[in-house]
Specification:
Radius of gyration: 17 Å
Shape: globular
Distance between the termini: 44 Å
Strand content: 35-45%
CATH architecture of the largest domain: 3-Layer(aba) Sandwich
Number of domains: 2
Number of strands: 13
Structural class: alpha/beta
Largest sheet: 7 strands, mixed
Number of helices: 6
């Protein structure tokens, strides 16, 4: 198995079967930006994935800058939102332009694809985001905390779609979550198998809130994106300049 950031098959499966979180997060972000009177401007989509959030933002009239480590995800994003600007890179050293909003949906702050993901790196990133945000601007993201695996020991589950299936084993030890993912994607009359291992650094809610405040934000922690209740161990954060 290899540790990598969403190869072609898992990127396809994630886009096809796991887009609800991104759609609800995008709706929440757009509603909050409009409530603040920010109906135009740049929004930075960190860990943009296949571009679901980016597409909603672009449709709402915002200029989108998307950043992701996965070439396969970026291919999907560029097809979905041809008018947005996408580039490959780590969110931890990404250039954050002047903007009205920043978002990072889908545990982006937790993933250890970038070995530079440390508490210090998160604080530095948050400070750069705060410096880039226009008055009234919003940072909206979610992060996994301890308990995300959903049980003791190795927890297994599977999901299947029309032309794909995915099997996941999640195991949590201390503040680290390891997901071993086996995916099957139909290609012609056969199914192609691929394997990935995703390691996440779990961030307790109190720690994330304290880090956001150190970076100069006022923060609200939520268990929902609009009408969508988040799964166990996933917390949504809305942060504004203090």
């Amino acid at each position: 198995m290899t540790t990598r950031a969403y190869g072609a098959d898992l990127a396809y499966i994630h886009d096809a079967g796991f887009g609800a979180l991104a759609r609800h997060a995008a709706a929440r972000l757009i509603a909050e930006l409009r409530r603040a009177g920010l109906r135009r401007g740049v929004v930075v989509d960190l860990g943009c994935g296949s571009g679901i959030v980016s597409a909603a933002l672009a449709h709402a009239g915002y200029d989108v800058v998307g950043i992701d480590l996965s070439p396969a995800m970026l291919t999907l994003a560029r097809r979905r939102v041809p008018g947005a600007r996408f580039r490959r890179g780590s969110l931890f050293d990404a250039d954050i332009p002047r903007c009205v909003g920043v978002t990072a949906v889908g545990e982006c702050f937790n993933y250890r694809f970038d070995r530079g993901n440390t508490p210090q790196a998160v604080l530095r990133l948050l400070r750069r985001i705060r410096a880039a945000l226009a008055p009234g601007g919003l940072l909206l993201f979610d992060a996994a905390e301890p308990g995300r695996a959903g049980g003791a020991g190795a927890v297994r589950h599977h999901v299947a779609g029309r032309d794909w299936a995915v099997l996941v084993t999640a195991e949590e030890r201390g503040r680290q979550l390891t997901r071993t993912i086996t995916s099957f994607r139909q290609r012609g009359t056969r199914y192609r198998r691929s394997d990935e291992v995703h390691v996440l650094r779990l961030i307790p809610r109190a720690e994330m809130q304290a880090t956001l405040r150190r970076a100069g934000f006022r923060v609200q922690a939520r268990r929902t994106y609009g009408a969508l209740e988040l799964p166990r161990g996933l917390i949504a954060y809305e942060a504004r300049s203090s």
